[in-house]
Amino acid sequence: MKSAILATLVASAAAFAPAQTGRAATAVCETKADLEVLAKKLNPVLGFYDPLNLAEAEFWGESNEATIGFLRHAEIKHGRIAMFAFVGYIVHANGIKFPWAMQMDGTPFPDANGNPPALWDAVSDTAKWQIFTLIGFLEFWSELSTPEHTHYMRGGKPGDFPDFTSGMDGIPHPVPFNFYDPFRLSKNMSEEKKESRLRAEINNGRAAMLGIFGFLSAQCAEGSVPLLNGVVPAYDGEPMAPFVTNYMGEAFNM
After folding, report:
1. What residue ranges of the chain have pLDDT lower than 50?
2. C-alpha to C-alpha distance for 113 and 233, rounded to whole angstroms
3. d(CA 31, CA 28)
4. Shortest CA distance to 30 belongs to which of 17, 43, 40?
5. Is 15 exposed, middle or buried (0-12, 13-18, 19+ CB in 10 A)?
6. What is the pLDDT of residues 43-99, one digit of tens each?
7. How many Cβ atoms sit within 10 Å of the Cβ of residue 74?
8. What is the largest CA-CA distance in the chain?
């Protein structure tokens, strides 16, 4: 559970701009004007909201268009992981788990009495390292820029995850499915339908980011979310720490 939340911290958050994903052969270089139009489609009531004026920023000496690409990609990534985290929280809070052993030595999946952060604490460090290794690979793969996949800061579409390719220039074994449309169900979908679903993804991602942190806030700071009083159990650990043991701090006697 925590690993899903921690993955949201890999890139900077940018909740001010709507996002657009999918496959495209043409370059996508968006400006503040484009964001204003898309924001109105995404949320007609709020419209464009950028109190920090990030839409005019130029991070790390890059162009404004590249910065907008970075911010939009970051928001999409945060939203997707938050949706995983929100659903995962509900699943674990209700004690739902696989019936088979979690590890080769027969260790079962932990329960923690319906307390998702405590459940993560009960997972062995070996299992956590496997999870983090997979996350690291996916991060590496998502940053690739190839002739078939342009980086989101260089005109590629924010949120577009590269296909898994096999062979000399890719993964050295067959990969039958991709993250985007693994069963190719959208190949005949109209562009209007795709745009509508992309906007729904961003709205759902924003709601999930608020939802998962609402759960954690209610567990760690009693009364912080009145609607969740008595609904979620208290948690006195550190929800953002990947491991129970502070390995980095041990070197400094912390």
Report:
1. 1-26
2. 9
3. 10
4. 17
5. middle
6. 999 999 999 999 999 999 999 999 999 999 999 999 999 999 999 999 999 999 999
7. 22
8. 60
